[in-house]
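Narrative of accomplishments. A recurring question from our advisory board has been how the design workflow behaves on a single, concrete structure rather than in aggregate. To address it, we present the structure tokens for one chain from the evaluation set, followed by the sequence designed for it. No filtering or post-editing was applied between the two.
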């Protein structure tokens, strides 16, 4: 279960592209963990970095008065809720890694391809 980063996922904003690649790396490190301690640590790192990355995008959106901020932030919050549930399932030994891997892959590809691509286009217009 590895999420493969592809250059076609780049949206043309160097900072955000680098952050997205790091997110893929953190997801892969997390999914590769072999025990509960590793999963817990991986989940914590992924959660922390995801929040930092979302904060970066959201502060840009606020600064630029991005019109679609509400829908974009709602998607971010949905992912954070899901990651919160992951921490709980690690604790209870009920984590389904295959299910999570496909969810994260679908979410990232969809969100980057739609919401973040539109944001990058808006940034370029400023
Ligand atoms: Fe985003």
């Amino acid at each position: 279960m590895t999420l493969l980063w592809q250059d076609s996922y780049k949206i043309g904003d160097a900072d955000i592209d680098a952050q997205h690649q790091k997110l893929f790396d953190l997801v892969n490190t997390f999914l590769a963990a072999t025990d509960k301690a590793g999963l817990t640590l991986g989940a914590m790192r992924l959660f922390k970095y995801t929040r930092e990355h979302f904060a970066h995008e959201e502060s840009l959106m606020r600064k630029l008065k991005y019109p679609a901020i509400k829908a974009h932030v709602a998607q971010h919050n949905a992912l954070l809720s899901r990651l919160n549930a992951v921490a709980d399932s690690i604790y209870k030994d009920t984590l389904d890694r295959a299910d999570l891997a496909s969810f994260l892959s679908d979410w990232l590809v969809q969100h980057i391809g739609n919401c973040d691509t539109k944001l990058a286009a808006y940034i370029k217009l400023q």
